Amino acid sequence: QVQLVESGGGLVQAGGSLRLSCTASGRTFSLYGMGWFRQAPGKEREFVAAIGWSGADTYYADSVKGRFTISRDNAKNTVALLMNSLKPEDTAVYYCAARHRVGSSGIYQHAQYDYWGQGTQVTVSS
């Protein structure tokens, strides 16, 4: 029904930038919330950022606030994550996620999302 595909991951030095993109296909008209999660080796999946349908409401984990920017383009069915001032601790597999539910309730919890991409690796060297 809905497919998500991430791109833009790679290897970057500390202090550098990367832009991740996620393209949605299928019944995208009902995907009111979209976000990014990440999972590092030996750690559980954690919330990174989320954005509402209109793009006016954005949410960030404390660890990335001020460095990362999430945006979406509904005409192109895409959501992006611009990552600046990258740190080695940002190294992880980054996953695009989407859900049908409206509002901010549950946006920090991975179980509250309906669809997931395959993930893209981000490696930040020191």
Spatial separation of the terminal alpha carbons: 41 Å
What is the H/E string? Answer: EEEEEEEEEEE
Helix and strand content put the structural class at mainly beta
Low-confidence stretches: none
Mean pLDDT: 94
Into which percentage range does the β-strand content fall? over 45%
User: How many strands, which pairing sense, and closed or not: the largest β-sheet?
Assistant: 7 strands, mixed
Note the main attributes of this structure.
single chain; 126 residues; mainly beta; 4-stranded antiparallel sheet; globular
Overview of this protein structure:
With 126 residues, the chain is mainly beta. 0% of the residues lie in helices and 50% in strands. It contains no helices and 11 strands. It has strands at 2-7, 10-13, 18-26, 33-39, 46-51, 58-60, 68-73, 78-83, 92-99, 115-116, 120-125. Strands 2, 4, 5, 6, 9, 10 and 11 form a 7-stranded mixed β-sheet that branches. Strands 1-3-8-7 form a 4-stranded antiparallel β-sheet, with no helix packed on it. The N and C termini lie far apart (41 Å).
Structure described in brief:
The protein has 126 residues and is mainly beta.
Ordered list of secondary-structure elements with their pairings:
Layout: E1 2-7, E2 10-13, E3 18-26, E4 33-39, E5 46-51, E6 58-60, E7 68-73, E8 78-83, E9 92-99, E10 115-116, E11 120-125
Parallel strand pairs: 2-11
Antiparallel strand pairs: 1-3, 3-8, 4-5, 4-9, 5-6, 7-8, 9-10, 9-11
